[in-house]
Each structure stands twice: as C-alpha cells, then as structure tokens.
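Contributing: when you submit paired examples, paste them exactly as shown. First protein:
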Amino acid sequence: FNGVPVIVSGRWSGSLRIKPKMTEAEAMKRYLVQRGVSPKKIHKEDRSLDTVSNAVFSRQIVHRHWTWKSILLITSDWHMRRASWIFRKIFGTQYRIRLLPVATRATKERAEHEARFLKAAKRFLQRMPHNDRALIAILRKRHPFYSRSAEAKKVLQQLQGAQWKKPVSVIM
C-alpha cells in the first residue's frame, strides 16, 4: 500500500447470533500491520453490520478527507458485484471506484445468496438521499440491523423469506 490511506470496514455481520470478540475491522487492521502497513495510514470503520452500512460509514471517513476521490474496493470475488453496486450508489459519480476482487471458491449457493441480497439492496436504496446525515437516518429507520421499526421488520422478513441456509459474515 506504500503510504496510501486504507479504510478497513466492518463490525460483524448483523445476522450473526453470537457476536465475535473482535470486529472485522480490527482483525483486518492487525493483518495489515503484521504485513508492514503503517497503523497511521489505516482508518478503522467498525460500526457497520452489512455491506450497505460498510459503504455509508466508509463514506463518512472519506468525506473527512476531501482530497480522496479515487477508491480501490477490495473484497471477495463472489461479493464484488453487490459491493461495487452498493459503493457506487452510496458514493455517487464524484468518486472513482476501482475494483480488486480476491479469488475464492464461490459456490452456487453463495451466488444465489448474493443475487438475492443485491436485489434487496437495490430495493432498500432506491430512494436514497445524498448526504451522510440522511443516510444514517435511513439506516436507523428502515434497516433491520439498526432499527426495530415496522418497516425494518418487513425488510428482515423479506430477507429471511429468501431461505438462505446459514447466516453469512462478510469481511470487506
């Protein structure tokens, strides 16, 4: 990374029944530091519980550094389609988002899961505001991992109705 700022994003998956002792962001930070990345260059986002909130909370960090206009999004190859769509939707056209998928052994089940969740993300973000405060308000009002509202419960029921076989944790 040679001096390039890095955002590691993720608390843990909101679908987990047992919460890990360490956030995904902390685990990624430790991994990068062990491989020689300066801790001063690593910005930790550890509030997000899914890909939508990875993008929302990472955007807040990026906005604090007004010169950052190019983003390299790194995630697993099976998750890249959904992650890139969400990040482009949340960040907008004023940011250049390049993709670096990490090769994995994706299964047919994983591909089906990703397709369902991309569809859900598109529904969730169809009327998306363009400022950070309004985005956070939408998470608090409509998102099943951040809200107990009737609308959030409906979203959760739709996702549970998708009948995935087990909860999945995504490390951005």
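Second protein:
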Amino acid sequence: MKRENLRMMVEGSIMIALALGFGIISKSLGLSLPQGGDISIASLPIIVFALRNGFKEGVGVGVTYSILNFITDQNKFFHPVSIICDYLLIGIFLGVFGIKGKIHIKFILIYLAIFLSHFISGVAVFGSFAPEGMNKLLYSFLYNISYVLPEAIIIATILFLFSKF
C-alpha cells in the first residue's frame, strides 16, 4: 500500500470518528429534534476531508459516515425514502465538496441539496407528524429549515474562520 493511500485512509477514519463523535455530543446536549435531525457540526470533518482529498475520496468517506451514522442513530426510521434521503444522499452531498470550484458556491448549492433531501423525506415519511390542519409541505419545510439552516450557518462560519488561518 502506498504511503499516500495509507495517510488518506487514516485521515478518513479519523474524520468519520470525529463526525460520529460530534453527532453524539449534539444529541447528548439536547440539540436533536423528535423525528430526527439536529444542530451539529458532525458534517464538518467530512467536508474538510473532501476539500483536502477530492470528490471521489470525499464521497467514499461521506457514504461510509452516513452508513455508520444510520447504524448508530437512536432515531430508527427504516422507511426506504428516509434511509436514502436522510442518510445516504447526505453523505454523497458532503463528499461533493471535493469537486473543484469556489467554496461559497459549492456550500450554498450543497446545503440547498441537503435541505431538499431532508424536505423530501419529511414530506414522504414524516408528514403524518404535522399538527392537525397543517399542510405536510409546510410542516416539512419548517421542521427541516429549523436545524439545517442553523447548522449551515455554524459550519460556514467555522470554514470561514479556518480559511483565515
């Protein structure tokens, strides 16, 4: 095995462990919502890995993180749409940060895709949790924006601060 491949595998493993740890910390601090989703910096290590190592490796680490996150997650919704939209696609989207391009454009597009993925899952799977009389589209929008937007702002701020160093 080449030294560079070994370094990348070790770095990817560390970033996955950090992401899972950050997720556990946010849940233990009560930053998670009843039907899933939380305000966390768990995606930050995956984003950093993808930025450092590229698209292909970023997607690999992102998908691995998503699978492990699903396995260890306390909110067990085994609906196929939820598994795909709330876990698998999110890992792929985080790995897309490895594509060359302007970080701020990628960030906006990727976090929009992350929101839409959660939104679709919310409409398809979690719409039944909407309060009586509330449209499930509106419910999914409000529910998912309540944690995706703050998380995106926090991660964008951290990435901006990192870029200054």
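If you have annotations for the second protein, write them as plain sentences, like these:
Helices lie at 3-28, 43-53, 55-72, 80-95, 103-124, 136-164.
Residues 136-164 form the longest helix (29 residues).
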